[in-house]
Amino acid sequence: MSRPFLLGVLGGMGPLATVDFMHKLLRATPATHDQQQIPHVVWNVPQIADRQRALAGEGPSPLPQLLYGIQQLNRLGVSHIVIACNTAHHWYEALKQESDAPILHIADATLEAIEDKPKKVGLIATQGTLDAGWFQQRFAAIGTESLLPTQDEITRWFVPGCYAVKRGDLQQGGELLTLQARALRERGAEKLVLACTEVPVALAAISSPYLNEAIDPAEALAQQCATLWLSRRNDRIN
Amino acid sequence: MSRPFLLGVLGGMGPLATVDFMHKLLRATPATHDQQQIPHVVWNVPQIADRQRALAGEGPSPLPQLLYGIQQLNRLGVSHIVIACNTAHHWYEALKQESDAPILHIADATLEAIEDKPKKVGLIATQGTLDAGWFQQRFAAIGTESLLPTQDEITRWFVPGCYAVKRGDLQQGGELLTLQARALRERGAEKLVLACTEVPVALAAISSPYLNEAIDPAEALAQQCATLWLSRRNDRIN
Questions:
Q1: Which of B46, B103, B187, B231 is 20 to 30 A from residue A236's alpha carbon, by CA?
Q2: pLDDT at B1
Q3: Using a CB-CB distance cutoff of 8 angstroms, which residues of chain A are in contact with residue B43?
């Protein structure tokens, strides 16, 4: 017997990117009134050890706080969980083992959403996400090559761009991340994969033209959630 | 001994207004990195009986679903609860009795946020909120007169404007609610009180000039939450 549909969102990484993900959930769901929208509960608690620093060996692991969030969502009887942060998928297997509810993987959702396979994509992501290789492996399996930011680009544009979003400076975040996007396009990427949830927030804030050529994993994940919900919309939540 | 700070948001009424409220929470909190932002958990489950219809005697009461949401937030050990919907405050006393965590009242937060007392305010709100009189009573206590929409305006502009937002038509919602705002200004309101969480969403979507002369109860409530959080930011969440 399946549980009534209730989506749990593990957020807080960052909190603004989580709000952006919720917007995407609502936009992905055709609805003429409130009651048709996707029922969800959001753990938007940003008191989590910094993921990028942990993976660089410069800070404590966020795993205890991630596990706590997953446990709290499970206590509410969620039927599915998503993690509104690409980098946090580093701990996906550990979280999955502790969760009664299945956890959807953002890279699986991204690949599912791709219609025409590009020859080359540019991955805009944290060093931790790049090192993990989830996106590269999945793209390779469909014959798509992944171009990665250089170490220099990450230091100059990607990292300060992300932290600008985290302190609310979307303008600066947008400008820095646009430079990162342009560099990947100039090296031959047909599409850009915005594989860090801060990135689409920043590019949208400055109406960056690179948004139009982008594959947005957060949007793909929202779309997957909406599809699941639409197939079960007649269930009752309580 | 007080609980660690964790804000519970009873949302879903509507789900987009709840996302807008979360934006306001983040904007109200000065933060240079994720970890300084307000920790919150959001019950954004819109499968709740329609509040306006219930209060008009045309549909079932939303109280069971509201109580369920309050119970679920309490199960997570929230320290405070807010309800991101003015009309749902009709059931405030019943919800308060069932909640371990204190529930902040949106009209109290609004009055606290007022700096210079206007002589006359225009209340843009559902019939249920207007009938309850929370805002009028509190404004009367500080010597401010409340101007209300007429029955005809509510039918022509307010109600269809709100339901346009709920079906995602922010443009139409913004236009209709701007007509409502203009009518109240023309009758002498110095400030407009946007006492329905759909209203600021719609006016912002069309960059309505009436936003600049408005008192936004959702923003006032977010500000109250941020002030509480700032006074306890050194506590740990888990």
A1: B103
A2: 47
A3: 41
Residue A124 shares a structural domain with residue A176: yes
pLDDT one-digit tens code per residue, B133-155 = 999 999 999 999 999 999 999 99
Give the closest of A19, A26, A46 to B15, CB-based. Answer: A26
Phi, psi of B192 (to 5 degrees): -110, 135
- DSSP assignment letter at B156: I
Please tell me whether residues B92 and B112 are part of one structural domain: no
- pLDDT, position A212: 87
Tell me: do A130 and A185 sit in the same domain: yes
Provide the CA A56 distance to its chain's centre, in angstroms.
20
Q: What is the DSSP string of A78-143?
A: -SEEEES-SGGGGGHHHHHHT-SS-B--HHHHHHHH--S--SEEEEE--HHHHHH-HHHHHHHHTT
Residue B116: pLDDT band (50, 70, 90) is: confident
ipTM of the complex: 0.94
Backbone angle region of A28, left / alpha / beta, with phi > 0 → left and psi within -120 to 50 → alpha: alpha
Q: How far apart are CA A89 and CA A10, in angstroms?
A: 11
For residues A202-226, average pLDDT: 95
Residue A166 carries which DSSP code?
H
Given an 8 Å threshold on Cβ–Cβ distance, is B39 in contact with A40? no
Tokens 């407009």 belong to B192
Residues B62 and B121 in one domain: no
| Residues near B157 by beta carbon (within 8 Å), at least 6 away in sequence | B149, B176, B177, B179, B180, B183
Residue closest to B144 by CA, chosen among B167, B117, B168: B117
* One domain for residues B100 and B112: no
CATH number, residue B65: 3.40.50.1860
Distance CA B231, CA A82 (A): 32
Are B135 and B213 within one domain?
A: yes
The reply to whether A121 falls in a domain is yes
Cis peptide before B8 (omega within 30 of 0): no
Q: Do both A97 and A190 map to the same domain?
A: no
Active site residues of A: 85, 196
Q: Which residue of B has its CA nearest to A73?
A: B76
Contact of B234 with chain A, judged by CB distance below 8 Å, is answered with no
Q: Does A165 touch chain B (CB under 8 A)?
A: no
- Looking at the domain assignment, is residue A1 inside a domain? no
pLDDT for B12-51, tens place per residue? 999 999 999 999 999 999 999 999 999 999 999 999 999 9
Report the residue from A22, A47, A48 with minimal CB separation from B19. A22
Question: Are B22 and B12 in contact, with CB atoms under 8 Å apart?
Answer: no
The residue segments making up the domain with residue A48 are: 7-106+220-230
Q: How many domains does chain B have?
A: 2
The residue to which tokens 């009534």 are assigned: A4
A93, A41: one domain: yes
